[in-house]
Amino acid sequence: MLLTETVSGTLFLMRERLWAPWRLQYVSNAGKTESEGCIFCTKPAEQQDAENLILWRSTYCFALLNLYPYTSGHTMVAPYRHTADIADLTPDESLDLWQLMQKCVRAIQQVYKPDGFNIGFNLGRAAGAGIEGHLHLHIVPRWHGDTNFMTTIGEVRVLPESLEQTYARLKTALEEAMRDGRTD
Fold first, then answer.
1. Distances, alpha carbon 44 to alpha carbons 48, 63, 72, 119, 157, in Å
2. 85 in a domain, yes or no?
3. Longest C-alpha distance within the chain, in Å?
4. The pTM is what?
5. Residues labelled catalytic
6. What's the total number of domains in the chain?
């Protein structure tokens, strides 16, 4: 079905509409400052891990799902301590962050069998940080062909499962990875 819409005198042709009501929360919160609360400080303090998508708590860091994922399994690892400067991490925090990242990768590999990963930090607004004041590591599983028309032209991500399903699957796999003790 071909839809038309006129905006400021320009006629736009559209094949169909993609409704994404879950994006309302993201759009409503866009641009809010950290003075309204750093999610990497408030979420772990609430002690509501399933509701806050916290997959694992270690001594100095924790892992949680990205509420607005790039792909299914998009996980973040952050220290509990509020800091934006990676050079400010203690040796214990650095080691804990790295080891937790390895365990998350292991769990994602087990559950999703991706072809690769993007793993890294966006430090500072110029580098693309959405939350500048609290450093966090992104783990994004990738598959051959995961960029297609919807992502490149439509600027829309299509995720095959809900965050609740992703949480349940990764939580179980991460618990197994922690019991296993290996990171390879």
1. 8, 10, 22, 22, 27
2. yes
3. 62
4. 0.76
5. 136
6. 1
